[in-house]
Structure formats: C-alpha cells, structure tokens
Amino acid sequence: MTRRWRGRPGVVLATCCLSLLLVAMDATVVNVALPSIRAEFGASISALQWTVDAYPLVAACLLMLSGAMADRFGRRHVFRVGLAIFGLSSLACGVAPGMGWLIGFRALQAVGGSMMNPSALSLIVQAHPEPRARARAIGIWGAVSGLAMAVGPVVGGALTHLVGWRSVFWINVPVMIVALVAASVLLPVGQEGHRRPLDWAGQLCVIALLAGLVWGLIEAPRAGWGSARVLVSLGVAGLGAAALVVVERRVRLPLVELELFRRPPFVAAIAIAMGAFACLGALLFLLPYYLQVLRGFSPVRAGLVSVPLALCSMIAAPLSGRAVGAFGLRPSLLVAGVLIGLGGVALLGLAETTPVWRLMGALMLFGAGYGTVNAPISTAAIAGLPRERTALAGSVASTARQVGLALGIALVGTVVRGDVAALVPAWWAVIAVGVAIVLMGWWGTRGSAPASR
C-alpha cells in the first residue's frame, strides 16, 4: 500500500460515502413516487415491481463482474465511470416517455451503481489498513445508507407532491456531479489494477440464474405458477445455477470463488444479507402502498412516516461497526436478528386504523436491526482475504444484498392486490428472517475474534 493511501483515509471515506448516498437515496425516492408513476402511466403492479426491481436485478447480475473489473483496471477509474453512467441514466429516467423506457433506464442506472459499490468498499478497505479502524469506517459507510433512507422519502415525497415524480430522478444529477469531481480530484490513484482475466462464462451463468429467478417470481402472480413462461424462466434459473457450479470449478480464476462457501462466516454473511435485504425491499415496496393507497396519505406524509426506520438505521450502523471491532461479529448479528424479528411482531397487528406512532415504533425496531446487520456482513465478507481481492470479495456481499432486495420485491407482488389483511404473510416472513439471522449468526461465528485482535 502506498503512502498516499494512508495519508487521506477521511477523504476516501467521505467521497465513497457520497456515492453511496446517491445510490441509496435513489431507491427510497423511487418507492415513494410509485403511486404517482402508476397514475400517470396506468401501470400494472408487475410494471411497478419491475420499475423498482430492474435496479437490484441488474446490479446483482453485474456486481461480481464489476468487482473483477475494479481489480483489473483500477478502483478509482471504475468508480468514476460508474458515477458518470449513474448520473446520465438518472437524467434519462426523468424524461422517460413510458413504463418500458423508465424500466430500461433504471436498468442502466444499475450498471453504473454496480461499478460504484464494490470499488468504493475496496477503496475504503485500502485506506484503513488497521482492522479496528476499518470496522469503524465500514460502520460509517453503512450509516450513510440510513441517512439516505431518512432523507430520501421526505425529499422524494416533497418533490413528487410539488414538482412531480420525474424530479426524484433529476435530483441525482447535481449530487453525481459533486461526487464525480470529488473522486477525480481527491481520490488517490493508489495501486495499479491486477490484470486477471475476466470470467465471461461465469458471468453469463450468473445472469441466467438471477434473471430467470426474479423474472419468474414477478410474473407468476399474473401469469400463474404453472404457465409456460414462468416454468421456462425458473428452469433457466436452475440451469444457470448448475452451470455456474460446473464452470467455476474448471476456471483458473473464477468469477465466483466456490471455496469461499466453505467458510462458515462467509456463508452466514451471504445468507443473512439476502434475508435482511429481502425484508428491506419488501417493506420499502409495501409502505407506499399501505400508506398512500390503503390509507390515503400524501407522498410527503408517507415519506415522513418512514423516517424513524432510517434514523434508527443510521444510528445503529456506526455503533455496530464499533462493536464488531471490539467484540467480533456474533453480538451484532444476534442483536440484529432480535430487532428485525421484533419489528415483524410489531407489524402483525397493522390495520387501516392503526395509530401512526405504533407503525413508526415497528419501523424503528426494524431500522435498528437493519442498521446493525450491515457492518458484520461487510466485515465477514472480506475477512482473511488478500487485500488485492477485496473489490471482488466485497462485490459478492453486495450481490447478496441486491439479490435479497430483488427477491423481496418480487415475492410481495401477490399481497399488494388486496387489503391490509393480505400483508400479514409478509410480516410473518420478517419474523422468520429475524429468527434465521440469530441462528445463522450463532453458527457462522464460532471461533471468531474481534477485529482489533
């Protein structure tokens, strides 16, 4: 590691956090705007799902490739290209003439986002070589996601109400410009990229697996689980999974290192990431439906109701990062599972006349659990790996997060076609995930030590 990396860790962290703020806030503002988008285009529920799900699906398909590209071509360069693509596609989303165009531009946003996140995590890791400082930095990075969730719904609701839903995409452009300038001027060049060959066969298998799975889950409620296109889609996913295992065992430098899945902390982190983010994706998709459609709230009021979730996440994330550095992975994972499960319990009794304070209390519990789970996931994903492979390793954890988001949004499509009672299965699923996080967190951290040791 060069001296230039060691001398400016705060600058690196701030610049990377600005990019995360850009991406994370985009997800929350889009969710608040969904009812307005539906009203203008007359969109179906599945079209709205694709508007949201196009991003995590494409990002999940490309994150590991982007991590490998960052290792190959340099993190700073890939990071800046991702910023530019994300900003330009945000501008295009704001002028989309129809749902098809909007979904396509959202997918293009994901191409840029997939290039930013693994590069940003690797830049942060390289700038913080000491394990305890690294854990704290990752905690701060996670707190920015909470800040975005706090600001996003309010800003998105206000823009949708005062200007229109298109403005929720335009707001990304000035933030992108600031982040791009900061990355170009302030980020050090660091080490040269590692010229490892790209695993295109593995990438195609990942695309077949994830695209087939999410497509089938979203279309099944409308077309029927026994329809030909759903069965073909799920069949493609199964073939993609089988082919991925075969291909990655034969490639010298695979896209997905199957040996990582022999490490219990890594397996637990991936499973927990998928479960926790599936709950988050489902909740962020259901909240606007419950508040704006079933209860008639304005976009601004609906955005304000979701702020406690984000604030608790923002507070819990850096505390969890410090706890991981001091006590290891297990305490944070166990606390996160309990909080997420309690949030699901509190949501069970939700009705159209439920006091807002009770809903906000449930969201606070879930938000605290979500904020707590991020730091141990990121730390476990990169622990014990060579530093030059951290971008690729971080991309695996980021992929698990995006897969979870995509699956959560896909699976809740069946419940948004009914009244508030139809939401109950979703809350039971949140409880089940909370229990699973506790069990996986205990199993996957046997023998783990604090990061500072």
UniProtKB/TrEMBL annotation:
UniProt subcellular location: Cell membrane
Keywords attached to this entry: Cell membrane, Membrane, Transmembrane, Transmembrane helix, Transport
InterPro entries: EmrB-like, MFS, MFS_dom, MFS_trans_sf, Sugar_transporter_CS
UniProt-listed SUPFAM superfamilies: MFS general substrate transporter (SSF103473)
Membrane topology label: Multi-pass membrane protein
TM region positions: 47-66, 78-101, 137-163, 169-188, 200-218, 230-247, 267-290, 302-321, 333-351, 363-385, 392-416, 422-443
Gene3D superfamilies associated with the record: MFS general substrate transporter like domains (1.20.1250.20), Multidrug resistance protein D (1.20.1720.10)
Molecular function terms, GO-annotated: transmembrane transporter activity
Cellular compartments per GO CC: plasma membrane
Principal subcellular localisation of the protein: membrane
Transmembrane helix as UniProt keyword: yes
Domain Major facilitator superfamily (MFS) profile: 12-446
Keyword check for Transmembrane helix: yes
Family, as annotated: Belongs to the major facilitator superfamily. EmrB family.
UniProt-recorded name of the protein: DHA2 family efflux MFS transporter permease subunit
